[in-house]
């Protein structure tokens, strides 16, 4: 059965180019680098030709560059066992990489896919590709990242995704292991299925200025990962237990906008170091959105929560009930209302109905201000001296009045 499958894939891979106008001999030339005397294959299209990369058996080739073409196909086993230091696919209308196309390709310094209008990676396209210094995907659009498309890619120093749009990412669309640095920058992930982005044994994972539309349970799965950072990202929704991990040292979301933070969104995380949630804006949140973080098991967790803004309505009424879990009252003290950070949530109070349900939040009444005169008196009379002076003043006035009356009576008698 396995042999039949492999034979079928081989036939499909090698015959898929029959509908194309060109092959290697029409588009590609083998050149020699004058600096290194190494051979490299350069495929530069003049008029957006479509072509299939035939199997390459010249093992002296160290670089392959395919640029400026229409539809390009990389069939089954076409680059197998080549000792390549650089592979680049750039400025293509469409790039299709079929299963096992790069099998047993190792020791690549740079594998770069850039400026591709439609990227079509079939299952297991990169199986056997390992020991890569840089894997770069830049300015690429894919309607669907198929299951196991970027799977079995192992031992990469830097995996970079930048300025890309992925309309749908299926299960294990990105299944990467032994990654030192993973960075996704300014990239849109629309519909993400379960386990669509799974990283195993990675040091630093950073998402910066990314947009995530729909997530599901375990859309982000981190196994033996040290640190995960989301910076300046936009989440349409973070589904319940969207993040899964075994112990992480750092999980951080900062300067991000979250439209809908579902109940127990962080329930799949296992943390042992820092949970950082600062300077974020959240439109809709629920009573149990954060309860997995404010639990006794995380009493030793270094929690960095500050300066987040919420829609100040009854959707955040649950913050007042966190006192038993949030011992330091962190959420109330460090949360603000959307629109201005001059109004912390603590300035509001819930208004309850007869059934003890929250109807609305309203600002607390401001403390009454003293008049200027009263404030002056309060300032001047800081001790009993003020009162003694008043008493003495009244005594002298009474004595003067008595003397005046007495003198008047004496004058009348003498007359």
Automatic annotation (TrEMBL):
Cross-referenced Pfam families: Beta_helix
Keywords, comma-separated and alphabetical: Signal
The keyword tRNA processing appears for this protein: no
Domain Right handed beta helix positions: 129-262
Cleaved signal peptide residues: 1-17
Protein name per the record: Right handed beta helix domain-containing protein
InterPro entries: Beta_helix (IPR039448), LRR_dom_sf (IPR032675)
SUPFAM superfamilies: L domain-like
Source organism of this protein record: Larinioides sclopetarius
